[in-house]
């Protein structure tokens, strides 16, 4: 299995429109097909010798683990790949954003072939932590002890804090807290910049990292500052066309008054948005393809040419598999605070469906994704089939698709409002059961809307086929 190439966005509680924290990531697979599920793992005691099916990583895992949601790969023959979820303490984790370490640093601390990698991180961390900060600490300790075979970015959040964690080389890592009034855009490159080793409230890091950098003369800064991105990251030509344009477009959406070059490798890690950010704004970015610019591969900009349209790596592309927005709300009781907005298929065509995470189970069609295409029983295959229908007739269908997505968003918000109101006095098992049933109703209604759209698009395609011939057409 090749590594995923994803796009992430993080939002602090004072930057969001409703005071919630949000960490979100598009999981883009290694090809057009990578069957995904949305599941809940029950609380249990762990006492096992864990072995990764992906790279052979081993550790003895023990302790009481809490319930958590996840978005694993349906076929676990090459590893778990739980990817992203929220646990019963309202701690969210997204793992991972694929990145790269430069050759100079890798020479001194090579990647560990059987270290802890993306496929294992969520399973080994999320069930065992009660705050985002604890998540950073636990993952950091595992990286230092076992090493990692990859360079990755990992997001953590709870109701109060949002953290971004980056690995570098075999055993080095840092984590930075996103300022409460700010957001961050994270493509497939290192993004964390200056580290303040005297500010434990906002930075965490490997115990060895300062000595490692000093010993091997890795810091190029003239002023003695410690810029993690400059020390460990890559800044090659490929980054300027594959990665930085995604940061540029995200910051263009949320700070439109700031002019930047799409290929600049000096854009800041975090910014204070010019307006508060809602779930819909995060969705707009994660489903975008440089809309309204000459770089849109779907050609929605009248003066764009084919060369510009293919210049940068789009956010929405055929490798899209599953996207989640992990929202921890602060305006409801904590038992209802966690919502995982799940989008499967091609993100620009599919809706984000809101699921409470204090649940016993997930909807049936989100737990099934066999190798056989089955849109009737599998949400993954339903949305992948929608992609196949829309792509060849994008300009014919896109306005209808956008209207459908808006309708699904309004439906999801309405279901959340209704559920919040009915559940406000519930507690314990009664509440968990009610939220589980509410998720079923939301999934069912949006599934019906999706199948109705697909039926209509098929009928339109059949009625507009160019391979038609009537009597007299040759006259």
From TrEMBL:
<keyword id="KW-0645">Protease</keyword>
<dbReference type="InterPro" id="IPR005322">
    <property type="entry name" value="Peptidase_C69"/>
</dbReference>
<dbReference type="GO" id="GO:0070004">
    <property type="term" value="F:cysteine-type exopeptidase activity"/>
</dbReference>
<dbReference type="InterPro" id="IPR047804">
    <property type="entry name" value="C69_dipept_A-like"/>
</dbReference>
<protein>
    <recommendedName>
        <fullName>Dipeptidase</fullName>
        <ecNumber>3.4.-.-</ecNumber>
    </recommendedName>
</protein>
<dbReference type="GO" id="GO:0016805">
    <property type="term" value="F:dipeptidase activity"/>
</dbReference>
<keyword id="KW-0224">Dipeptidase</keyword>
<keyword id="KW-0378">Hydrolase</keyword>
<dbReference type="Pfam" id="PF03577">
    <property type="entry name" value="Peptidase_C69"/>
</dbReference>
<dbReference type="GO" id="GO:0006508">
    <property type="term" value="P:proteolysis"/>
</dbReference>
<comment type="similarity">
    <text>Belongs to the peptidase C69 family.</text>
</comment>
């Amino acid at each position: 299995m090749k590594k995923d190439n994803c796009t992430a966005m993080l939002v602090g509680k004072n930057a969001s429109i409703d005071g919630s924290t949000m960490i979100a990531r598009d999981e883009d697979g290694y090809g057009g097909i990578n069957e995904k599920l949305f599941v809940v793992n029950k609380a249990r005691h762990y006492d096992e010798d864990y072995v990764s099916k992906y790279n052979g990583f081993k550790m003895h895992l023990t302790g009481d683990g809490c319930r958590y949601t996840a978005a694993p790969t349906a076929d676990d023959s090459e590893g778990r790949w739980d990817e992203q979820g929220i646990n019963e303490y309202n701690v969210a984790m997204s793992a991972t954003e694929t990145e790269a370490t430069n050759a100079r640093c890798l020479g001194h601390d090579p990647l560990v072939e059987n270290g802890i990698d993306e496929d294992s991180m969520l399973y080994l961390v999320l069930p065992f932590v009660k705050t985002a900060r604890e998540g950073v600490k636990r993952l950091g300790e595992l990286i230092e002890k076992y090493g990692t075979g990859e360079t990755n970015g990992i997001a953590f959040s709870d109701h109060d804090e949002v953290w971004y964690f980056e690995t570098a080389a075999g055993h080095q890592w840092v984590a930075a807290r996103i300022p409460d009034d700010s957001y961050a855009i994270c493509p497939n490159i290192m993004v964390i910049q200056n580290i303040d080793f005297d500010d434990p409230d906002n930075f965490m890091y490997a115990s060895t990292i300062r000595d490692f950098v000093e010993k091997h003369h890795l810091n190029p800064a003239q002023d003695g500052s410690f810029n993690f991105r400059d020390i460990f990251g890559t800044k090659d030509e490929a980054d300027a066309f594959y990665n930085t344009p995604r940061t540029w477009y995200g910051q263009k959406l949320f700070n439109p008054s700031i002019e930047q070059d799409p290929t600049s490798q000096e854009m800041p890690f975090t910014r204070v948005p010019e307006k508060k950010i809602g779930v819909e704004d995060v969705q707009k970015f994660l489903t975008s393809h440089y809309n309204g610019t000459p770089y849109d591969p779907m050609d929605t900009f009248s003066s764009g040419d084919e060369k510009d349209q293919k210049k940068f790596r789009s956010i929405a592309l055929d490798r899209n598999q599953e996207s989640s927005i992990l929202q921890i709300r602060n305006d409801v009781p904590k038992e209802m605070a966690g919502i995982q907005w799940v989008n499967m298929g091609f993100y620009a065509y599919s809706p984000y469906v809101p699921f409470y995470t204090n649940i016993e189970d997930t909807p049936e069609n989100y737990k099934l994704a066999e190798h056989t295409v089955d849109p009737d029983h599998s949400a993954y295959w339903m949305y992948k089939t929608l992609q196949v229908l829309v792509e060849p007739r994008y300009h014919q269908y896109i306005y209808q698709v956008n209207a459908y997505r808006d309708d699904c968003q309004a439906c999801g918000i309405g279901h959340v409002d209704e559920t919040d109101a009915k559940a406000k006095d519930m507690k314990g098992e009664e509440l968990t059961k009610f939220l589980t049933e509410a998720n079923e109703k939301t999934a069912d209604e949006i599934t019906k809307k999706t199948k109705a759209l697909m039926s209509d698009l098929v009928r339109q395609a059949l009625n507009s086929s160019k391979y038609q011939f009537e009597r007299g057409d040759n006259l």
